[in-house]
Amino acid sequence: MKTRLPDHGPLETPQFWRTLDERLETPEAQQAAHDEFLPGAVPISYDDVHGLPVQAQSGFSRRDFLGLVTASAALAATVACDRKGQGTVVPYTKRPVEVVPGVANYYASAHQEGRRVYPVLVKTREGRPIHLTGNDEHPGVKGKTSPRTMADVLRLYDPDRLRSPKSEGRIVGWSEAESRLYAALKGTKTDGRPVLLISGAVVSPSRKALLADLKAALPTLDHLAYEPAAGDAAEEAAKASFGQAMDLQPRLAKAKVILSLGADFLNGDDPEAQAAWGAQRRLKSAHDPINRLWVLEGPLTLTGTNADQRVPVAPSRLGAVAFALAKELTAKGVALPAGSDLSGISAGAPAEIPSATWTSLVKDLKAAGRQAVVLCGAQMPAEAHQAAHLLNAMLNSEALVATPAEPLATVKDLDTAVQGMAAGRYAAAIFWDVNPAYTFPKAAAWKDAVAKVPVRVWIGQVEDETAAQCQVLLPENHWLESWGDFSTPSAAVLQQPTVGTLYDTRQGEDILLGSLKALGATVPDGYHAYLQARWKKELPPGTTFEQALHDGLVKVEAKAAVPPFKGASVAPAAKRAVESKTEGLELVLFPGFATHDGRHANNSWLQETPDPISKMTWDNPVAVSVQDAKALGIQEGDLVSLSLNGTTLKLPAVIQPGQARGVLALALGYGRTTGGVAKGVGIDAFPFLGLEPGSANVRQGVRLAKAGGRKELSRTQSHHRMEGRDIVRSLTMDEFEHHPQGHHHMPELVSLYEDQKFPDHKWGMVIDLAACTGCSACVVACQSENNVPVVGPEQVARGREMHWIRIDRYYEGELENPKVVHQPMLCQHCDNAPCENVCPVNATNHSPDGLNQMAYNRCVGTRYCANNCPYKVRRFNFLEYTAYKTEPETLVNNPEVTVRPRGVMEKCSFCVQRINDVKIRAKGDGRAILDGEVTTACMAGCPSDAIVFGDLKDPKSKVAQLVAASRAYRVLEEVGAKPAITYLADLKNPVIEGGHHAN
Amino acid sequence: MQTDAAVHTGDIPAGLAEPSLYVGKVTPGSLDDQVLAFPETKPPRQWYFALAITLTAALIGVGCIGYTFFIGIGAWGNSSPVFWAFDIINFVFWVGIGHAGTLISAILFLFRKRWRNAIARFAEAMTIFAVICAVIFPLIHVGRPWLAYWLFPYPNERALWTNFRSPLLWDVFAVNTYFSVSLMFWYLGLIPDIASMRDRTTSKLRKLIYTALALGWRGAATHWQHYEKAYLLLAGLATGLVLSVHSVVSFDFATSVVPGWHMTIFPPYFVAGAIFAGFAMVVMVLVVVRETMQLKNLITMRHLDVMNKVILAMSCIMGYSYMMEGFTAWYSMNEYLHHGFMNIITGTYGWAGWVTISCNIFIPQILWFKKARASYFWMILVAIGVTIGMWFERFVIIVISLHQDYLPSAWRIYKPTMIDFGILLGTFGIFFTLVLLFARVLPVIATTEVKAILPDAQPGAGAEGHFAAGETGTAQPTDGLRAPSHHGDDHHV
């Protein structure tokens, strides 16, 4: 504060003085002015009311006195409270626009994984993203997304993220770090040595344009877009069949007969396919149309578990089988595409397939015609893909959308680049959001080669194996902090940041733009401007960029013409398929359900989400077929050694019913050596990946032997048979038509206690087991919504996982090719809940709207409720799983859901916070709650819409109508708990002996 | 078993005479000298040695409990679906052990079984100690032990109340009532003996303590009158509790929906099992006590013989109960119950089922032989067997039933941790530490009650060392001073 008066002259601006001393500028007054408040006297020495001077009664000023009183009171209050870890609570002084404390905001954005793009809706609270769902405006995904996408919000808050640039291991500023990159790039311009850039798949038009700009400014740039999990064979096959890279997406809504050659399109990765599947399976009557899924595959996939007809076939044989199928179809009068030659193929059922099944399959495909589609798993050999392309071309399938795609580099291209690096070809290498040091099969060769590149720059989020080999590390934004755009077949999708950068990070495109600028190009200021400028030109008339961002998408017309199928490619592929020989055991390497290619390995939510088939968490054991395990004397959990071409891995084995004989399956993406979560989880299977793109993921001649010793498997389900109990009902279409309830009769049960009364609402749920594929998206959605803690592999092995919803998976019938059923199991919110009357402190009780609720504060943890729960859906905090967490980990928590401490029981709440949110809003609007307005997280997350939630008291609600459906039943009804969840029996549509069921 | 009614006045044929309840010449004075002298003498080396062992075990247990408090119930093997394991097994086990004391002191008192007089004190003390071991578990097994007091229905400003439908709450009352009544009963019986010790001791400190504990007992006739009324009332109360407490404990299981728990046979089956286990423990301890404390003349082989007969009877009841469990599983046609029963005999934990059946049913059958009932080897073998068997019976009921209930997807094998074993060891340590301390500081035999069966207490009694035959049928005034027995003046047999 400026209080000094000028010595003389007229005052230019009014200057006020408080005391005469001040006016006269006595030293005391100057000191007082400097101190603002003199200790003890000045500021309060005047009576506030009358302005009269107040004589201090003691050495204490009133201010001091009040201060001490306040401090004492605060101290007393603090001591009296036993709340721990209270943070500072500071209200907004200037509230950011759009942010209302306690009210969630939603933003449209998008997540890319490989070639796949997931348009999402980001829920933010007080400016931080906390929950992801699909963008409901997108015509394809319709509000659905994949489990890994939902879990990726956790990666935003990963404490392992690199928070500022590093150079030679030192934390440096951006200018210093980038100057090294720029210097290297400028240097190459003069000496002409090439620069290597390895990135992930390019599905973004703006990123593509930017890379083109970079290539123009730096002609020596070698760009490889490498996706280790995309399946090199699919890429190779597409190039052979169509002459270019293709993105083949099924449109299952149009398919009556689906033949999968090891394609796992129901595993949660493709919400669009799953939605279409669910729509065709949620039958009201046996006369509704239903598709039929044929699956020929080696390992048991989720799609295989949902098959109506499944035959185990080794992946190496799929090509031959599929070409034989094509040959059979030609015999049935289906024309081959021009130039195709199948003369090398003999018709007739292959050895693996019973002839009756074969005949049915051929008949089914022929009858469905254009409504049949053949899908091939990305990891299957190239011949199988080419056979699938041929079959689809023959059938002229309308259930397939083929779009030309940006080509991906294969492992072979990468190998060429490695040889180039080893030869000293490159002046610099940039690794952008890729981890080739981990994913390249020959890690040692990679390491030697990369050391020969003078400047190595890494752009990424969490320091990984590649980062360890680079000198300059540039921390990248999470996609929730970034701008971007993607093209999908039905719309262009926009990505916008939903939170400011948490750390001193930039997005990769901005780094490239900076490089462009350094190279002398004229570029917009930042990628946001770049993107906007490009879109201003592209947007259809009448659409603003802001509107497009709001919607998260721009509807664009499908453009590029689909190249015709090349008939000439058939003969060589068929020849290869017939000649392909299996020797010893065959190993299939597939992307891990949780980890994908390893990029999600540091995500504990995903690591703890059980694999939908094996129910393994935190590990990638090798799956052995029942027959091979018996022959080799392998028990589950036995350590085995797996060797191929001099590489030997020691890892635990699981016995996988339904897996083809002679086939081993192993997930990629484990065994990382960096990352707080990822490090040391499972075994790195990339060394087994082949360098021949056509068969990179299917390796022959693998040797398997018992290595001695065992490992405790961190599995969430250890018993896999239903023991003949009426738990999951599964009907064939014939049974559905004639005996939908089978022979189950439930006598009237009586209770000593009075029935619960539900005056206004009674919340209930219906789960359609026919639509549920077991993909576990609900598990991840629930984990994110309800702050479900992660407990780690040791705790999972002891049965202490905390998931509020689990998917029970049962095998039935012969072990070699069992029938598999999935059943989401969560708190049944029983009207007559066995848990409620045994709780001595009333911590769990019934709400008037039908919820079985938990008062965490009241729970003392006797665990009696969990013992008495027939469904075993209650979860106990055996240890402290959450309190040790600090920012940034805690930022992902949903503020509407209590974080539970140790010693407390918890379980599914039917997302009571969402119910109350809707209730409050409806009350505010003075209206009744609409049917479908309340969605639980699992329901919103379910890609196949198997879960329906609503008010059972409203007879018009969807849930009330489904409860009355003919397939409806309740699990363990005989216990008399009166669950609020109704299941609809699973449906299978197998071929009926001696004829076909009408489609 | 012989009853008092079989004892006749006058001449008793030699073969029909009831065997003596003591050996040799015992007078009130010699009895006091023999029994009340222990607290006055320095314990032998072996006693210190034994105490060192039991204290170590107790400290291990306390350490394990402390560790559990520090990190949570996760320190134990409990998991889903076996949410209860060693914690509740040990609780039920120790509550069961506690049953013998009350049965001996209360029920046998009301039934006028005078062989109880010499062993009642020790058995009652064991009840108290066993219940102390038992109540540790409900307190430490809850997830948030610092809030365990919420199980009591106390008035509070939040108007929170307990759930009276919960069997766990019934447990709280049953065990608390049982403990307090047992404690009062035991202490009441101790008062005259403590007064005697007060009068005998020369140590000032002991005098002070015993004086305080004797509550001013002078042996006056009014004292005896009140004492006997109180004793009778408490015996009546405790009798009901013997049956109720373990019935209520069994409700924890019987009222649930868990297959293998939900059975109507549980209350009587639990009570019988508790008496069974309790008697086995009493036999084990008494054998050691009579040998090491030179009490063979007071705790005779006849006492042990009778105890062994009770054990045999209970074993037969247990055998019947086990068979009924199997019958129920078969007859109910309930697939869950059937699966549960088959698990006991053929499942992963089938060995535990067979340990239970062997120890509780097969081994005790040796007690049909009189020689076995008179042999230390056999009775100790049976007693140890029963203790192990009854612990495993609770393991069978709790762990086997829980590990595979309704949905096979949730089934899981349970494995205890070292902490679980540590706490189990610790309770044995606590129990035997208390037993050892008791044996040195308080009279291990109720002298006043034994005096009641001495000839001195029975004017006109028959031969010394035998049952006072003249007591029945003739009213005898209590002298109220030297041997004022509330048993001796038993007129209505």
Oligomeric state of the chains in view: heterodimer
Helix-and-strand structural type of chain B: mainly alpha
First-last Cα distance of chain B = 16 Å
Radius of gyration of chain A using CA atoms only = 32 Å
- Contiguous low-pLDDT stretches of chain A (5 residues minimum) are 1-6, 40-45, 995-999
Task: Tell me roughly what share of residues is in helical segments of chain B.
Answer: 55-70%
Q: Supply Rg of chain B.
A: 24 Å
Shape of chain A: globular
Enumerate the strands of the largest sheet of chain A in spatial order, edge to edge or round the barrel. Answer: 5-4-16-15-14-6-7
Largest interface: A-B, 57 and 50 residues
Key features of this structure:
heterodimer; A: 999 residues; alpha/beta; six-stranded mixed barrel; 30 helices; 37 strands; 27% helix; globular; B: 493 residues; mainly alpha; disordered N terminus
Task: Write up this protein.
The complex is a heterodimer of chains A (999) and B (493). Chain A has 999 residues and is of the alpha/beta class. Chain A is built from 30 helices and 37 strands. In chain A, a hairpin with a 6-residue loop joins β28 and β29 (819-826). The model of chain A is unreliable at 1-6, 40-45 and 995-999 (pLDDT under 50). Chain B has helices at 28-35, 45-71, 86-97, 99-110, 120-141, 167-200, 204-214, 221-254, 266-292, 301-331, 335-346, 350-362, 370-373, 376-403, 418-441, 447-451. Classes of the chains: A alpha/beta (999), B mainly alpha (493).
